[in-house]
Write a sequence for this structure.
C-alpha cells in the first residue's frame, strides 16, 4: 500500500553516495524532510531537480532534502554530479526496499514529511503548482517568508507527468 498524504512516514535508513548512513527519524529530529524518489534515466526528474536545488538554496537550514535513487551507486553519483545535487543522494539498492514501502506512483515523487513524521505533502511528476505549494509549506514550518521557486514564465511547462 502506497504512503499517502496524512500517513505516518515509515522510518528507514540508507547509505548515501558519500558513504554516510542516513536515517529518516534522525533527520526529523532536526525538522521537516523532503524525500525525492527518482531514476537517473527519468526526463521529468531532470526537469524537477533544478527546482529542488532552488528550494534547498532558498531554505538552507532547518530541514533535510534526500534524493532517493532507484539506481545503483555509480549511476547515482554520476547523476548527482551532473545535476548539481548538494544534498544526500541515497541509492535504494538491495531490492528497492524503501521504494517498495513508499510505493511512489511515478518518478519523481516528492514526500514532504513534517517534524513529527507525518506526510504533509505528496506530489508526483513535475508540477509548478506543487513545487510552489511545497515552498509555502516549508516556509510555514521553518518560520520564513515563502518564495516562488517555479515561476510561470520560466520557459518550462506548468506540468509534466512522471
Amino acid at each position: 500500500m502506497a504512503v499517502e498524504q496524512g500517513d505516518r512516514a515509515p522510518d528507514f535508513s540508507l547509505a548515501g553516495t558519500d558513504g554516510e548512513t542516513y536515517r529518516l527519524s534522525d533527520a526529523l529530529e532536526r525538522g521537516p524532510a523532503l524525500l525525492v524518489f527518482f531514476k537517473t534515466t527519468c526526463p521529468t526528474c531532470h526537469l524537477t531537480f533544478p527546482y529542488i536545488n532552488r528550494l534547498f538554496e532558498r531554505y538552507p537550514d532547518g530541514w533535510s532534502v534526500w534524493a532517493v535513487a532507484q539506481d545503483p551507486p555509480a549511476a547515482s553519483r554520476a547523476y548527482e554530479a551532473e545535476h548539481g545535487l548538494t544534498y544526500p543522494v541515497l541509492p535504494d539498492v538491495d531490492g528497492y526496499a524503501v521504494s517498495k514501502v513508499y510505493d511512489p506512483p511515478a518518478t519523481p515523487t516528492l514526500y514532504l514529511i513534517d517534524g513529527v513524521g507525518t506526510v504533509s505533502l505528496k506530489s508526483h511528476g513535475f508540477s509548478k503548482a506543487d513545487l510552489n505549494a511545497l515552498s509555502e509549506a516549508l516556509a510555514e514550518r521553518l518560520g520564513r517568508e515563502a518564495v516562488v521557486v517555479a515561476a510561470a514564465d520560466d520557459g518550462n511547462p506548468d506540468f509534466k507527468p512522471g
Summary: The first helix runs from residue 24 to 30. The CA atoms of residues 15 and 109 lie 20 Å apart. The beta strands are 13-15, 21-23, 33-38, 64-69, 89-91, 109-113, 119-124, 126-127, 159-160. The first strand starts at residue 13 and ends at 15.
